[in-house]
């Protein structure tokens, strides 16, 4: 279940962690198991934003600054002001990622600088803490990986 909020210039659907996704929350072509594994993260929140022509785009927000996301979820669900709680967030999309060293497959959330919701992307990227290496073998990999989940 989602809550409609306005983030930056757009109305978006915000999905609190405490609520499991329902069939109607999935966009065409999305895998339910993959989505459920990502929305269980304590550092990610799922958003769906409208696109022209009635289409929708799904992305994730990631925080590395210690923002209390359980408190944010409660504020949004209760309709309370959330203040500057999104200041530490970076938006990203999911992609399949294989470590070139150990061959482990992951679902990764990778920063997307083209999302217009949060503004000041250069400061956000500079200040954000990324997953710089494979959690299995510690080999460094591509920049701007926000979060990884081992693929099923």
> What is the H/E string?
EEHEEHEEHE
Q: Tell me, what's the shape?
A: globular
Provide the helix percentage: 10-25%
Largest sheet, order of strands side by side? 1-2-3-4-5-6-7
Radius of gyration from CA coordinates: 15 Å
Structural class: alpha+beta
Q: What are the segments in which pLDDT stays under 50 over at least 5 consecutive residues? A: none
Sheet of most strands: 7 strands, antiparallel
> Taking all residues together, what is the mean pLDDT?
88
DSSP summary, beta strand count: 7
Task: Give the N-to-C terminal Cα separation.
Answer: 24 Å
What proportion strand?
25-35%
Number of helices: 3
Structure description:
By secondary structure, the chain is an alpha+beta fold. It is built from three helices and seven strands. The chain has a seven-stranded antiparallel beta sheet with strand order 1-2-3-4-5-6-7, with helices on both faces. The longest helix has 10 residues, at 69-78. The model has no long low-confidence stretch (mean pLDDT 88).
Characterize this entry briefly:
With 152 residues, the protein is an alpha+beta fold. Helices cover 16% and strands 32% of the residues. It has a seven-stranded antiparallel beta sheet with strand order 1-2-3-4-5-6-7, sandwiched between helices.
Strand and helix map with partners:
Blueprint: E1 3-7, E2 10-15, H1 32-39, E3 44-50, E4 56-63, H2 69-78, E5 89-98, E6 105-111, H3 121-127, E7 145-150
Antiparallel strand pairs: 1-2, 2-3, 3-4, 4-5, 5-6, 6-7
């Amino acid at each position: 279940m989602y809550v409609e909020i306005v983030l930056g210039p757009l109305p978006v659907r915000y999905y609190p962690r405490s609520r499991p996704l329902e069939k109607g929350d999935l966009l065409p072509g999305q895998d339910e198991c993959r989505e459920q594994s990502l929305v269980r993260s304590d550092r990610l929140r799922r958003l769906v934003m409208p696109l022209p022509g009635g289409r929708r785009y799904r992305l994730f927000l990631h925080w590395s600054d210690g923002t209390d996301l359980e408190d944010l979820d409660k504020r949004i669900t209760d309709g309370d002001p959330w203040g500057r709680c999104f200041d530490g967030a970076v938006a990203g999309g999911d992609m399949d990622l294989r470590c070139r060293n150990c061959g482990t497959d992951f679902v990764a959330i990778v920063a997307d600088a083209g999302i217009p919701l949060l503004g000041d992307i250069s400061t956000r990227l500079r200040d954000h803490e990324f997953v710089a290496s494979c959690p299995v073998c510690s080999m460094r990999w591509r920049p701007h990986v926000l979060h990884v989940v081992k693929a099923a």
